[in-house]
Structure formats: structure tokens, C-alpha cells
What we know:
5 helices, about 20% strand
Amino acid sequence: MLFDNDKFLTKMAKAFEDSKTSKTVYLTMKRHSYTTKKIKAAEEASEKASGDAVMGADDKDKEYPTLVRLNSGTKTKLSTLVQPQDLDRFMVQYTNIIKINMDNLKKKERKKAAKAKKATA
């Protein structure tokens, strides 16, 4: 489901609290482009037909929104679309929630060979 940014952050915090028992939380971020594959293929075909394959300056400088997705188990799927002007505020809140919930991580298990090697050195 697509939520607004603040609602997504509160649901994200709740998903992390729920994940303390046994769930895994996956977070993904990617640039969101409004063009679909069909639209992009049609644009490329028209550029080839007209012979005008030069990229405009406005395409290079265009700012895209960011799509943030959260997947927790099979039932919880959340997403939000962060506009470029709101990205800094969103990232501050996003990182604060991540930092608060870092205690849920498991410690890395080290190999016995590495411990034995340090003991002899």
C-alpha cells in the first residue's frame, strides 16, 4: 500500500517492534520514474524514426522522487513516494528509526580459526 511519508515512518517503527520476535524486515529504496516500459519503448522508437537522439538538458537535471518499500513477512507490504524537496527531512527521520532498532541485529559469529590465530600472535 502506498502511504504518505509520516504514516509510512510510523508503520515502519511498528514493523520493527513486531520484528523483535521472529520476523525479518526488508527495506528497499529506488528512484521512481513515471515512464513505463511501453512508454519508454515508444519514445525510443519515435527518436529513431525522427533521427533526434540527443538528450535534452532538462532530462539530465531532472530530479526524481524516491520510492521506499518495506516488506515484513508475507502480510506487511508498505511503500511511500518521497518527493525530492522532502527527502532530507524524510531521511533524518528514517535513519533515526533505523538507529533505534539496531539492537535487534544479531552479532556476527566469528570463526574459531581467527581466534586461535590471534591467540598465537
